[in-house]
Prior knowledge:
The complex is a heterodimer of chains A (161) and B (217).
Chain A (H helix, E strand, L loop, with lengths): L2 H4 L15 H26 L22 H41 L8 E3 L10 E6 L3 H6 L2 E6 L7
Antiparallel strand pairs in A: 1-2, 2-3
Helix pairs in contact in A: 2-3
Chain B lengths: L7 E3 L1 E2 L1 H6 L4 E7 L8 H12 L3 H6 L4 H12 L10 H12 L7 H13 L3 E5 L8 E4 L17 E4 L4 E4 L17 E7 L5 H20 L1
Parallel strand pairs in B: 2-5
Antiparallel strand pairs in B: 1-3, 3-8, 4-8, 5-6, 6-7
Amino acid sequence: xxxxxxxxxxxxxxxxxxxxxxxxxxxxxxxxxxxxxxxxxxxxxxxxxxxxxxxxxxxxxxxxxxxxxxxxxxxxxxxxxxxxxxxxxxxxxxxxxxxxxxxxxxxxxxxxxxxxxxxxxxxxxxxxxxxxxxxxxxxxxxxxxxxxxxxxxxxxxxxxx
Amino acid sequence: xxxxxxxxxxxxxxxxxxxxxxxxxxxxxxxxxxxxxxxxxxxxxxxxxxxxxxxxxxxxxxxxxxxxxxxxxxxxxxxxxxxxxxxxxxxxxxxxxxxxxxxxxxxxxxxxxxxxxxxxxxxxxxxxxxxxxxxxxxxxxxxxxxxxxxxxxxxxxxxxxxxxxxxxxxxxxxxxxxxxxxxxxxxxxxxxxxxxxxxxxxxxxxxxxxxxxxxxx
Lengths: 161, 217
């Protein structure tokens, strides 16, 4: 989502002098900030538990809790809109990669000999845990020589030392 | 056990602030109770409360209605709630970092329990060091929270008739906070858009009941 999409702009006839109702503008901006904060929270939750992804955050304006000026509210709204857009885009890219990895797992299961030694972890498909899918030869060296391959699914994290 | 009586009062809200945030409110109640060490029941309650937290619950907390309302308000007043956590998220984070909610004293424990249970930010003031009615207003130029801390222009503060006594969602003035010499306390709950009055009342009752645990034992 880009900034223009979140603006509620009333149609204004060309050439007319417009008296700005600052209260109404501030109210609109505060509502937009609230909506974008909600969207930012949704994107944040959608990225969880992917720990390697940057958290979608927008810095505070500084000076503690205070009544922001109109310009500061606009800056805040724009920063939030940009951050939501960036975070959604990053999440979309990430989920595309995860879909590809899921498909790869299916292919590995169907034709392991075509994906020798390939390893996909739970993290690669956006899941938690230490589970991974690993294409290995059956019976070690014999399987390698005979082209007998299989997918070994490993689960469980190593014990803490 | 004596029956708890709590007289809840609405604080005033300065016109400019009320115009910007029509649903902003401060509900407060005075308690005749002195700060002490937390009794075993309160420490046990903290332990049980800590056991209810999980990583997933804390992460999803930001979409629960009451914590979300305070996140939005924080954002609207220029705070990054991911950096300066809202009180309920700060409690949750403290639980995750320290592996539990450790008892400090009856006042802090009562506030922690009430904040964690209801999501509503609460502060405790020394009632004898508060002059007149409490309310919410903007800091005036050159005003200070106490001798040490200057306030920025148009900062949101909890104030009595004379001076700011706390920053909204922030620190309490050393001149008005609860000390071991406090004889009476004033509990204040901050209400924002999306948080019903009954939640503030519940938070004050919850804290008051905990504070009276020792006295009624």
